[in-house]
Amino acid sequence: RRMSVGSAGESLAASFLKRRGATVLRRNGRIGRDEIDLVVRFGDDLVAVEVKTGVGADSRPWENFDEAKRGRTRNAAARLGIRRVDLVTVELTHDAVVVRWLPDSG
Q1: Helix (H, G, I), strand (E, B) or coil at 22
Q2: Is pLDDT at 100 greater than 90 in this prediction?
């Protein structure tokens, strides 16, 4: 079964955060009409994580986390009692995977 680019990026982001001490509590959580890609715990802190994935060296996935998406993610996180929103970007190229973690990006 073939995995979508978005699902692949979310799996890579989850693995990346786990290696840095996070516990993944939820993936693709629906909150009303919005979605939070990952809900993770770092110690006592709950964090909502938006994952943006791009294909190709010039994909610039962080540009897709615009002000409107930030607002929707912040609102969904707040409904879960989460104050912090992080962004993880994943760039997939023919010879590399680049993962960037931008804490408190929301």
Answers
A1: coil
A2: yes
